[in-house]
Amino acid sequence: MEFIFFISLREYTVDKIYYDIGIPDLEKEMDKSINHLIKIDFLLGVNEPGKVIIHYDLTSVFAGD
Questions:
Q1: Whole-model pTM above 0.85?
Q2: Residue 1 lies in a domain
Q3: In angstroms, what CA-CA distances link 48 with 19, 25, 31, 53, 54?
Q4: Least packed by Cβ within 10 Å: which of 18, 24, 43, 48?
Q5: Parallel, antiparallel, or unpaired: how do β-strands 20-24 and 42-46 relate?
Q6: pLDDT at 46
Q7: Nearest C-alpha neighbor of 62 from the set 40, 46, 43, 47
Q8: Residue 2 placed within a domain
Q9: Residues spanned by the domain of 51
Q10: Is residue 6 part of a domain?
Q11: Each residue of 7-54: pLDDT tens digit?
């Protein structure tokens, strides 16, 4: 049996748009990304075991309420 659900997004509005970079957690990639911090709101890395690391979060997107 298959269920298909449709959700209307009509009642939602966009309050903020965030720009980010997601990279492998490698020194080479970090060095390249550091040059672009002025253009983004946050920088995420993923290390070898798959753990997400927040390297930079200018607007406190991940700080919670």
A1: no
A2: no
A3: 24, 8, 18, 11, 15
A4: 48
A5: parallel
A6: 86
A7: 43
A8: no
A9: 20-57
A10: no
A11: 777 888 888 888 887 888 788 887 888 887 888 888 888 888 888 888
